[in-house]
Design goal:
With 164 residues, the chain is mainly alpha-helical. The protein has helices spanning 2-36, 41-54, 58-87, 91-103, 110-121, 125-137, 143-162. The chain has 2 domains: 1-89, no CATH class; 108-164, no CATH class. Helix 3 packs antiparallel against helix 4 (91-103) and helix 5 (110-121) runs antiparallel to helix 6 (125-137).
Length: 164
Amino acid sequence: MQETIGSKTETKKVSNEVKKNDIKINVSEWVKAKKASGVPLMDLWRELNEKLSQCAELKLMKAYMEAADKIEDTVVSRNLKGKEYEREGEEGKAIRLYESNIKDKFDGSHPYERLRVIYTRHKRYEDIIRVCQSYIENGQHDPQLKAKYVELIIKLKEKIDKNK
């Protein structure tokens, strides 16, 4: 008789573990599909957090939170690795990482500022304008930096027009 109870308990544990993994896999597959369709990572991160705030099921909440954390780790790691590449003199690799974060609408100033500095050093004015516009369009939070970028865009456009 005890063996039967033990078996039911084991079956229940395995069943719960399968459900937990199914939820995790479903959220993971949803994230992959969104990425594949071109949704920027930070838009996806916001969507996951919105779902998390409206969710009542603990296992699903955990799956949303883990997926959002993974996205956050990805974009932050890019910035840290970009800084490392800059220190090592590998600007091209740093640029690729920072540009990836801009494409994914990173929520912060780091990749925008670093690209602005790098592109200024190389007089890549049109790239500076694009990066600054991206910062402004992505709804970033720093109003002083937004104002600085607006002024910079105006100055650079005047400079480009003058040189034509």
